Amino acid sequence: MHVLVTGGCGFIGSHQSVALLEAGHEVTIVDDLSNSKAAVLERIAKIAGKSATFVELNVRDTSKLTDVMTEGEIDSIIHFAAFKHVRESMERPVDYFANNIEGLTSVLQAATAAGVRRIVFSSSGSIYGDADELPIPETATPRPTNPYSRTKAFGERICADLCSSDPSFSITALRYFNPAGAHPSGHIGEDPTGLLSNLLPILMHVAVGNLAEVAIFGDDFDTPDGTGVRDYVHVMDVAESHLTALEKMSGEDGFNAYNIGRGEGVSVLQLISAVEKAAGVKIDRTVKERGAGDVASLFGDTRLAAQELGFSNYRTLEEICADAWRWQSQNPDGY
Ligand code: WQD
After folding, report:
1. What is the span of the domain harbouring residue 118?
2. What integer pLDDT is reported at residue 195 of this predicted model?
């Protein structure tokens, strides 16, 4: 297949592009480089042994995006391009809705015009918010607690409504929890150009000496050790799950949604310990107040993807930390 990867220079998108190329697919990346660097393209080629085509554009440029799909004879799309920081979204809600929702509707309009009918949508486990049951099943009612996760919950509704109106579409939403880690080669990894906000990259910057300490956002949550609990899932598992979902599509599948994650909750303190073990360093920390929009625990029931997609063989937390450390120690200042 010729797959269009929006946001393909980003953290997940770059790992996705490697997985697609290594599986023998042709890849075109579109990215506006607002939170990524074009330097990643040569790393992707180095790992995969072949290059992706790259077009610099913002996915809200529907006309140009349609041309890329038409001229490239795109068969399917994996849509990542979006802003993704929970706490930042509380400060910039309108920017998040404009970028994430308009970006998605533009991709869907371009796909409709260009005759592309197979799409995997990068959704998020954060749409569940403060769920009543843990681990959270796909049947749980989304109760997003911040603008970021509201853009993902509403984005799913938009995809589902399109599939209802036009049965020729197959759209699968993958609700992954906290992607983390890096490609085992150490050549690509998480390198946020803007806001350094996610926990694991912050811990890696402390471990490599770029930051003095980590601030723990709240230690009084209703969790075993009082700190926030999340489901950290290896970014290569996230990439491979999108590939699996795409290859499983037979056409006219309608809308489907699956949780992608290890199904195991890991606290901030537990992740700090895992990083200390992987990097062989002591991580200094302080406790601060809770992050706006944060929930105590978020981890998913991932049996449906195992049953329906045959996707279940996840990498361990130790592999996540070892691969993240290899990337960070080989690239202390990113790309
Ligand atoms: C994890 C935990 C924080 C930073 C995620 C990501 C992204 C998105 C889903 C898919 C929380 C705590 C963090 C710090 C801390 N992916 N923390 N100190 O908030 O679950 O958001 O949503 O859609 O994976 O944006 O991830 O890594 O920012 O935080 O104590 O300096 O670590 O409170 O409990 P989060 P995160």
Report:
1. 2-180+232-261+300-314
2. 78
Which CATH number characterizes residue 48's domain? 3.40.50.720
**How many Å lie between the centroid of ligand 1 and the Cα of residue 187?**
24
Percent of the chain past pLDDT 70, that is, above it, reads: 100
> For ligand 1, what atom is nearest to the CA of residue 293?
19
**Is there an atom of ligand 1 within 6 Å of 216 CB?**
yes
Number of domains in the chain: 1
Q: Judge whether 170 lies within some domain.
A: yes
Contact 78, 3 (CB under 8 A): yes
Question: What are the tens digits of pLDDT across the range 148-164?
Answer: 999 999 999 999 999 99
Q: Does the Cβ of 230 fall within 6 Å of ligand 1?
A: yes
Q: Which residue has the tokens 């120690």?
A: 329
Find, among 14, 264, 228, the residue nearest to 134 by Cα: 264
240, part of any domain:
yes
- For residue 147, report the distance from its CA to the centre of ligand 1, in Å: 14
**Cα(144) to centroid(ligand 1), Å:** 14
Whether 272 lines ligand 1, by a CB cut-off of 6 Å, is no
For the segment 194-242, what is each residue's pLDDT rounded down to a tens digit?
778 999 999 999 999 999 999 999 999 999 999 999 999 999 999 999 9
Is 187 among the domain residues?
no
- Please state the rounded mean pLDDT for residues 79-102: 96
* Measured distance CA(204)–CA(193) in Å, rounded: 15
Q: In this predicted structure, what is the pLDDT of residue 26?
A: 98
Tokens representing 265 are: 């909750």
Q: Is 148 a catalytic residue?
A: yes
Indicate which residue's Cα is closest to atom 7 of ligand 1.
178
Q: Which of 178, 209, 192 is nearest to 317 (CA)?
A: 178
In-domain check, residue 288: no
Q: How far apart are CA 229 and CA 44, in angstroms?
A: 32
